[in-house]
Write a structure and sequence with these properties.
The complex is a heterodimer. Chain A is mainly α. Chain A contains 7 helices and 4 strands. Chain B folds into 2 domains: about 60 residues, no CATH class; about 40 residues, no CATH class. At the A-B interface, helix 1, helix 3, strand 3 and helix 7 of A face helix 2, helix 3 and helix 4 of B.
């Protein structure tokens, strides 16, 4: 933002200033996000390793096909697409809040921060519904020659391969790792969304109290924005690994 | 490697994605990630020093992803060899140490 024209022979490393041309806080936010990227990366790669080691993995189109209020209609990935859309829109309103901050427009920052907070809460609510649906939905599976029902938890997976049983198609238990990784990684991401909502609420209160106005700049909104966009960025890969592939 | 041997009963419930679709989806996801970082997060507007300290360490992911997925695939092949009801391997599985190429 505060980038001035840089002369050709400018010596970034001669001391007395940041060679990165940003404030300490913003630089550290970037490094925090980089380390967080490695944390999420480690989780997702671990999931990938286990998934590649299995002969069978549940088809996300079958697991995630429910929509609130739609009963038993088969709507593959419809609800998670809505969740993704909500998160993208809240990223856009965050961009608008940062932009309003550049213009020292307190009213604009407040308005768009409220929309961003609302988007975050909407996303978390959707995730709560999705988790509840998986945890409370029982499906018929064949275990040791007997028909029983299983829900989707960290220790049960009813989404295994279908087999013939008494002339009908019935499910079997799938890889147990499915639930552990799904709830673990989407839960860790959801925790980041929750932290982001809390940070955004604090930013909103500080804006309302004129803290940034008196400071003369809204860089804190930019830093909160970096975090919020990162949460959206991680969701791109969570969405890819759990729902699309 | 991606293609698995499925029994006829399993095919009815097997993932319908083809490999090329997965490739396209991965590339589009990476493109979206690139635009979030460079436009929304303004990393593209920062000085080169800063961009490099963020992007270069992330290149480790290239190795991580290749190595670990390869490892997972290797597990799958080993497990297939020692699965119950795999007659070709069963006779070797119990008594002998797996030192004569049965591990593949």
């Amino acid at each position: 933002m505060a980038q001035t024209a840089v002369p050709q022979e400018y010596k970034w490393w001669s001391g007395g200033k940041s060679p990165f041309n940003v404030s300490y806080g913003k630089l550290m936010m970037w490094y925090f996000l980089m380390s967080d990227a490695f944390t999420f990366g480690a989780f997702l790669i671990s999931y990938g390793t286990i998934r590649f080691s299995q002969e069978y993995w549940p088809n996300p189109n079958h697991v995630f096909n429910a929509f609130p209020g739609a009963g038993h209609a088969d709507l593959p990935l419809a609800f998670v697409s809505l969740m993704t859309f909500i998160l993208i829109i809240s990223s856009v309103t965050m961009v608008l809040a940062v932009h309003a901050g550049h213009n020292m427009d307190k009213k604009g920052v407040q308005k768009y921060m409220l929309w961003t907070i609302l988007g975050g809460i909407a996303f978390l609510s959707c995730q709560a519904w999705e988790w509840t649906h998986l945890l409370t939905g029982y499906h018929e599976v064949l275990i040791d020659g007997k028909l029983t029902t299983l829900n989707t938890t960290v220790s049960h997976n009813p989404w295994g391969a279908h087999v013939e049983y008494n002339g009908q198609h019935v499910g079997t238990p799938g890889p147990v790792a499915f639930g552990g990784y799904f709830f673990g990684i989407t839960g860790f991401h959801g925790f980041h969304v929750f932290s982001g909502v809390v940070i955004n609420i604090i930013m909103y209160i500080m804006t309302t109290k004129d803290v940034f106005h008196n400071r003369g700049h809204y860089e804190m909104i930019e830093k909160a924005g970096l975090y919020w966009h990162f949460v959206d960025l991680v969701w791109v890969f969570v969405f890819l690994c759990f729902y699309l592939i | 490697m991606e293609h698995q041997q499925l029994s006829s009963a399993e095919i009815s419930f097997a993932p319908v994605h083809r490999d090329d679709t997965v490739g396209v989806i991965c590339i589009l996801s990476l493109a979206k990630a690139f635009y979030i970082v460079s436009i929304f997060m303004h990393l593209g507007d920062e000085v080169r020093n800063l961009i490099m300290t963020i992007v270069v360490p992330l290149l480790l992911f290239v190795w991580f992803i290749a190595a670990f997925l390869w490892d997972g695939d290797s597990w799958r092949n080993l497990r297939k060899d020692y699965n119950k009801g795999n007659p070709a391997k069963q006779e070797h599985a119990a008594p002998k140490p797996a030192s004569e190429g049965t591990l593949k």
